[in-house]
Amino acid sequence: MRGQDAAAHGTAVALRRTFVDVLAAFVALGVFWVPPIVEATGPWRSMAGTVLAAVVGAAMPLRWRFPVVSTASAGAATLAAYALHVCQDPLLATAWCVYPLALAQASRTRPVLLVTISAVGLLAAVTAVPGQSTENSGQRVVIAASAVSVSWLLGTIVGRQIEAVRKAERAHAAEQATRVQLDVARDVHDVVGHALGLITAEAGVTRSLADARERELRDALADIEGHARTALEDIQSLVRSLRAGEAREPAHPAVAAPGFTEFQALVAATRAAGVRVDARIAVPGHLDAAVAAVAYRIVQEALSNVVRHAPGAACVVEIQPQDGVLVARVLDDGPGTKDEESPGFGLSGMRERARLVGGTVAWRSLPSQGFEVEARLPVGDAP
Fold this sequence. Notes:
Blueprint: H1 2-39, H2 43-59, H3 67-83, H4 92-104, H5 111-127, H6 137-208, H7 214-244, H8 260-272, E1 276-281, H9 289-309, E2 314-322, E3 325-332, H10 345-356, E4 360-365, E5 371-378
Parallel strand pairs: 1-2
Antiparallel strand pairs: 2-3, 3-5, 4-5
Helix pairs in contact: 1-2, 2-3, 3-4, 4-6, 5-6, 6-7, 6-9, 8-9, 9-10
């Protein structure tokens, strides 16, 4: 539908332009060409004037499609007709054809040329003394120089404005494309990284159980299968939204608005991977869906980091409102990190997600041992 609307709009604009150009051609021919052709002495001059007038009349409506040819044809025909005394047009038709040419050449017009054209136009405007007869050749030259100069300047100014708008649109489109790429990369990292981390940890725990019974093995395989299926469904949902061009929430969670149950399931999956988790979760019922989704992804990534970088460690998960914000904190007693100033994709993704809803994320290694991630997100509507 958008393509059809754009095509219809383009057709309407082209028709309006053609109508205006044809009307301008009729006015120019009727005022500056018909009287001298009628009064011309000798049939051959009338014939030549008619042919030259037809060239100008055809050039004006075709100025948008063939700006160079139209301008050259109108200028040459006008000068030839003026030499034969069958035209009184001071290059106004040529100036009419110059505008689209200047518009197309705006970005390639050098400043020196613009200054020269401006000087010519200004000089012509100053020299054009009111009250002189239009039959005066000098007056006609002045008007011609002024008309062509002004037309070129207007076309150049408008063309550069259009080019500036197009550059801004291209920059905006490139920025939007970059943001989409970052969103997709962040989502894929969170979904796949979390699932693979849990699968790897559960597989390792199961393999370490030398005397594991068949029931335990089946339960472990069922958990691994569930993680893989959830990750696959999330990726498929992400791909479908991208193909359909749908606007996505800043965090594309497995559920539309994660609540207490979803956070508990996240904690349970982490425990199944061999991490001792002490959960203290209190999710407000009026929490905005986007904020809840961001909190879910941040806690998910923080727990994934514990599974990957601090296997066997114990951690505390706290999610509760405090002083008008939702505080999500994940604290573990693992080895921490030595390079807090160069965070990886996961920590950077947390910060990016939090910014999308007007929140913040901070992390630090604890003095003794362990690592802490704390997110502070607005409880009200996300901006």
